[in-house]
Design a protein that fits this description.
By secondary structure, this protein is of the alpha+beta class. It has helices at 4-14, 25-32, 42-50, 56-64, 86-107, 112-126, 133-139, 149-154, 161-170, 206-221, 226-233, 237-247, 283-286, 356-372, 384-392, and strands at 35-36, 68-72, 78-82, 131-132, 174-178, 187-191, 250-254, 258-262, 275-277, 324-327, 330-338, 343-348. A 4-stranded antiparallel beta sheet has the order 9-10-11-12, sandwiched between helices. The longest helix is centred in the N-terminal third of the chain and has 22 residues, at 86-107. The chain is globular, with a radius of gyration of 22 Å.
Length: 395
């Protein structure tokens, strides 16, 4: 039986939170996991937590060079992914979504010939230079992007353009590039030069793709339950179990988690006073199927963030939506950015967990947001009213 404190020590170490990891930002993300992005500042905060002293110029350079890319990935969600892992990310996203997109186009009566003509024109236009979706639409021949009317509205498709772009992205033909920064969630589409799938399993090689993902996931999150991996990918438990057998992953028992997979015998020491201030859905909690394993049982009854969904407790929550203050590997409080005061604020359920180290960490995080962004939006549609609610809910 692995004590829960030992598991948290290993999770912190794997995540590059216990001690900084070397290398550039792309290698840092490759070593600790893809960064969930919803059009807010969270990817930058996740990088900052693992690279103290990070400048926005460094992050901007990594995106501009395509060493870090914004891609559809597991569960159909969008992540920041390093170039070296982009092929697997795209192939797995296509594996989960391609057939559904094609069925949706059939339902709204877009024939394959119309889709092919639209994709050919998209590639022709993008071959002349990058375009936003709006600029691309304007540059395409009149009438090619037709309204799908009431039938399209019923299936969530106003036109075939978004589906055509997504399928071309799955094929490695076009790619999205942030127009400014990732928090703006505005992208320019460009034609891809080169093969993004070199050395990557084929889209129909479910076993190969699952094995690649599980191998990375265990480096990022072990010891971790098989169900946690399945929840993260949105894939099949049968495929995941077979991949674990091929990788030679061994089963261990973790206090409070139950059966889990591990790939090594590493033992890490937990610093009970170490403080970390993390982004919402940071991989320290976001790679888990719930956050109860990083929250003391005495706090499992407390309400957790919901992003508009039914509010749940920390004992029930399946996503790490909160902006957590961590001490000794456990969530002890929450923080939020106060746009009016231009600083970050935090609160702990037990005042004893407030400390000079936490004060400094939150202060530096607030300075990073104020100087670099002027806001602390969680996601693209976040607004002042929602931010005030979160501030009011701080312990």
């Amino acid at each position: 039986m692995i004590p829960s404190s030992h598991a948290r020590a290993t999770w912190l170490a794997r995540q590059g939170l216990a001690a900084p990891l070397g290398g550039d930002l792309a290698s840092l993300v490759a070593a600790t996991g893809w960064l969930r992005t919803l059009g807010g500042v969270e990817p930058y905060l996740a990088l900052l937590a693992r690279r103290p002293g990070l400048t926005l110029a460094e992050a901007d350079a990594a995106f501009a060079s395509r060493e870090l890319q914004v891609l559809p990935c597991v569960r159909g969600c969008t992540y920041v992914v390093p170039r070296a892992q982009a092929g697997v990310a795209l192939r797995y996203a296509a594996l989960l979504a391609r057939r559904r997109i094609e069925r949706d186009l059939e339902k709204v009566e877009v024939p394959p010939s119309e889709l092919a003509a639209l994709q050919a024109e998209i590639r022709r236009v993008l071959g002349q230079g990058g375009r936003s979706v709006e600029a691309l639409r304007a540059a395409l021949p009149p009438g090619l992007v037709r309204s799908l009317g009431a039938l399209g509205k019923a299936h969530g498709l106003s036109s075939a353009l978004p589906a055509a772009l997504r399928l071309l992205e799955f094929d490695g033909r076009v790619s999205r590039h942030p127009e400014s920064r990732v928090d703006a969630e505005r992208y320019e589409w460009r034609e891809v030069d080169g093969d993004v799938f070199a050395g990557t399993p084929a889209e129909d090689d479910v076993a190969g793709l699952t094995e690649a993902l599980l191998g990375w996931y265990l480096r990022w999150a072990a010891p971790a339950g098989l169900d946690e991996f399945v929840a993260w990918t949105g894939g099949s438990k049968r495929d995941a179990r077979a991949a674990a057998e091929r990788l030679g992953a061994r089963e261990v028992e973790v206090e409070g988690l139950g059966p889990a997979l591990s790939v090594d015998d590493r033992e890490d020491r937990l610093d009970p006073d170490a403080v970390h201030v993390l982004a919402s859905q940071d991989n320290y909690g976001g790679l888990r199927a719930g956050v109860r394993s990083i929250v003391d049982p005495s706090n499992h009854h407390r309400p957790a963030g919901s992003f508009g969904r039914r509010t749940s407790t920390f004992g029930e929550a399946t996503t790490a939506d909160g902006r957590f203050v961590i001490r000794g590997g456990l969530v002890v409080g929450l923080w939020e950015y106060d746009a009016q005061a231009k600083r970050a604020r935090y609160g702990c359920w037990d005042p004893a967990h407030r400390s000079p180290a936490a004060d400094r960490a939150v202060e530096k995080l607030g300075e990073f947001l104020t100087q670099g962004f002027g806001h602390g939006r969680l996601y693209s549609l976040d607004n002042a009213a929602e931010q005030q609610k979160r501030l009011a809910a701080l312990p």
